[in-house]
């Protein structure tokens, strides 16, 4: 049977743990055929980001056209956009309804702390998102309010949903506690998704992998709550599998393919 096609629009990670590289790994692991549009080239590894080169918006548009005129894309996701001009190029396709089941991962800061985007770029795409997946820091940056507790996550999810996304998942993996709690809000309903916290320093690309997994499940026909729950379980397994790995000297990547299962 022909696999479903999923599109990632994001920056590259030369270390392979996040961005385009992580997205394509997730697509393959979950049974989808991955296509990609590069928004920026980064020089990075597990220790940090050394350089970022945003691509011209016209080059981003050319890539989008090449993919969409040849493949039937079942779902799309965005990651690092880099600049508002690049975000505008992506928003043009989204506005025309050419990016189905769009998942917007508002990448603003890398795991290492390096800035990879601006709020204005993310805001251009939020009105077209079926699902937006900010972590607490990203939700705080976009809403302008602190997001450090579950109650504040709920408030942020509701505020972000009022700005356009059909569903918002504020992920709580960066908060302290025995559980990793994510907040899903959509259709006027708020759900707390609880799961065991994996004790590991290898968290590079967690957000990318989560949003990519959601996109795959949406392409396969899952409703949003099911897609989010499956993606959360997948990331938990990937974190668990890599917790004892020694890839790089910093925050290492996830076990996308279950090699350590």
Automatic annotation (TrEMBL):
Residues 13-254 form the Pyridoxamine kinase/Phosphomethylpyrimidine kinase domain. Keywords: Kinase, Thiamine biosynthesis, Transferase. InterPro entries: HMP/HMP-P_kinase_dom, PM/HMP-P_kinase-1, Ribokinase-like. It holds the Pfam family Phos_pyr_kin. It catalyses: 4-amino-5-hydroxymethyl-2-methylpyrimidine + ATP = 4-amino-2-methyl-5-(phosphooxymethyl)pyrimidine + ADP + H(+); 4-amino-2-methyl-5-(phosphooxymethyl)pyrimidine + ATP = 4-amino-2-methyl-5-(diphosphooxymethyl)pyrimidine + ADP. GO terms for molecular function: hydroxymethylpyrimidine kinase activity; phosphomethylpyrimidine kinase activity. Pathway: Cofactor biosynthesis; thiamine diphosphate biosynthesis; 4-amino-2-methyl-5-diphosphomethylpyrimidine from 5-amino-1-(5-phospho-D-ribosyl)imidazole: step 3/3. CDD domains: HMPP_kinase (cd01169). Its EC number is 2.7.1.49, 2.7.4.7. Catalyzes the phosphorylation of hydroxymethylpyrimidine phosphate (HMP-P) to HMP-PP, and of HMP to HMP-P. This is Bifunctional hydroxymethylpyrimidine kinase/phosphomethylpyrimidine kinase. It comes from Micromonospora musae.
């Amino acid at each position: 049977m022909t696999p479903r096609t999923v599109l990632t629009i994001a920056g590259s990670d030369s270390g392979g743990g996040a961005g385009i590289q992580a997205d394509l790994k997730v697509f393959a692991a979950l049974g989808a055929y991955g296509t990609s549009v590069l928004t920026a080239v980064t020089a990075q590894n597990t220790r940090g980001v050394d350089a970022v080169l945003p691509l011209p918006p016209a080059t981003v548009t050319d890539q989008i056209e090449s993919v969409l005129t040849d493949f039937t894309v079942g779902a799309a996701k965005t990651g690092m956009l880099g600049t508002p001009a690049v975000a505008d190029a992506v928003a043009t396709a989204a506005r025309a309804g050419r990016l189905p089941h769009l998942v917007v991962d508002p990448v603003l800061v890398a795991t290492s702390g390096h800035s990879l985007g601006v709020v204005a770029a993310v805001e251009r795409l939020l009105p077209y998102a079926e699902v937006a997946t900010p972590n607490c820091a990203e939700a705080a940056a976009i809403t302008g309010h602190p997001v450090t507790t579950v109650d504040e996550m709920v408030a942020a999810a509701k505020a972000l949903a009022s700005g356009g996304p059909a569903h918002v998942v504020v992920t709580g993996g960066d908060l302290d506690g025995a559980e990793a709690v994510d907040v899903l809000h959509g259709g006027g309903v708020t759900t707390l998704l609880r799961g065991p916290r994996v004790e590991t320093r290898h968290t590079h690309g967690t957000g990318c992998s989560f949003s990519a997994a959601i996109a795959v499940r949406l392409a396969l026909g899952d409703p949003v709550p099911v897609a989010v729950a499956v993606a959360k379980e997948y990331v938990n397994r990937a974190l668990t599998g890599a917790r004892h790995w020694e890839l790089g000297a910093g925050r290492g990547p996830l076990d996308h393919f279950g090699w350590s299962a």
